[in-house]
Amino acid sequence: MRRSYKFLLRPTVRQQAALSAMLADHCTLYNGALQERRGAWLHPSRTRIRYTGQSAQLKEIRAADPDLARWSFSSQQSTLRRLNRAFEAFFRRVKAGQAPGHPRFRSFSRFDTVEWPRDGDGCKWDPTPHDVQTRVRLQGVGHVRVHQHRPVRGRVKTIGVKREGARWFVVLSCDGIPTEPLPTTGREVGIDMGITHFVTTSDGQHFENPRHLANLAEALAAAQRTLDSFPKRKRARDRSKAHRLAIRRVAKLHTKVRRQRLDHAHKTALALVRQADVIAHENLSIKAMIRRPTPKPTGNGTYEPNGAAAKTGLNRAILDAGWGVFLGVLADKAECAGRELIPVDPRNSSRQCPQCGYTAAENRDRERFECRRCGHGDHADRIGALNTATRAGLALCVSA
């Protein structure tokens, strides 16, 4: 099994400057390779440049630019492979008839990650504590202290450095990690994800939705208003100190929301895998659920009411709940614990009666469910969880 570990870095002031310079030079390499590909494609000959050709030019580029030569050769190859994956995805979307989305140039402020494809090649993870601190050695930066809050298992394959706001992290990708099956419980549950309740199980247990983004909405709005009061600057070096502080304030609040959401997803997923051997969940298409409604013209220059304002609030609540993050965390924890995860079709899961099978939109009234045929009533979220369990073939779903 493969797993990633993310640890906080504690670089010195000089090491922070070196890390920033490393990101800037890799960003320059990425944009230069992208410009070369675009120029070749716009040429009348329609020449297509690939990763192998650009990787072969690295030695000449490093010889001509000493600033690029101070960083690891393998990390720069990894940056070129990153661009190559972006182009492969672009051509795949073109062939599929989808919106292609051509790879874009990256600004220094948005290029946040550098990766080394192999431990020991330009980087070295040293798990031996030095003055109660683990260290990672990065070529051109030195030995950087790491706040290792848990042990690393398996063999370190790749190492990455990521910048998040004003903080730096090291990401280790390890393989050969054995699974740790939890004791069997003999229970099988279906779950329903919602807005009022984050998760509801077929047993009637509710996990509340903390609404992290809504709780910080006022602080975010104030910080964004302060940021918007500054004139727009295309170059980061033209911004004033107050402008840079306003940017950091907004980024810090968004980072706090993201970390709270991820923490809640981990705790909820861990509670579920500890309670049940088999978990059935709705295979939600979140991208389709948050799609904006299409306005319909009336013919006299206006449009019919389509509830766009209400849909905007619902979309914000869905994104705030973080269902996609939760399902990803749940899949990882289920694999590690030896649990079975079953995705099922979510259509009409909260409108279908689990006793008689009658399906109608009138069966549900907000959070209350009452079957129009047999009169069966229950909480709408639990009805959805019961139907999810039924469609997964779980035995417990027959009880209402």
Describe it.
The protein is of the alpha+beta class. It folds into 2 domains: about 170 residues, no CATH class; about 150 residues, no CATH class. It is globular, with a radius of gyration of 26 Å. It starts with a strand and ends in a 9-residue tail after the last helix. β4 and β5 form a beta hairpin. The chain has a 7-stranded antiparallel β-sheet with strand order 2-6-7-1-5-4-3. Strands 10-9-8-11-12 form a 5-stranded mixed β-sheet, sandwiched between helices. Strands 13-14-15 form a 3-stranded antiparallel β-sheet. It contains 12 helices and 15 strands.
List keywords for this structure.
single chain, 42% helix, 400 residues, 2 domains, five-stranded mixed sheet, alpha+beta, globular
Summarize the structure.
The chain has 400 residues and is an alpha+beta fold. It has twelve helices and 15 strands.
Q: What Rg, in angstroms, do the CA atoms define?
A: 26 Å
What would you call the structural class?
A: alpha+beta
Termini Cα gap? 38 Å
Low-confidence stretches: none
Strand adjacency order, main sheet:
2-6-7-1-5-4-3
Total count of helical runs of at least 4 residues:
12
Indicate the overall shape. Answer: globular
Strand content: 15-25%
Series of H and E elements? EHHHHHEEEEEEEEEHHHEHHHEEEEH
* Count of DSSP strands: 15
Average pLDDT taken over every residue: 89
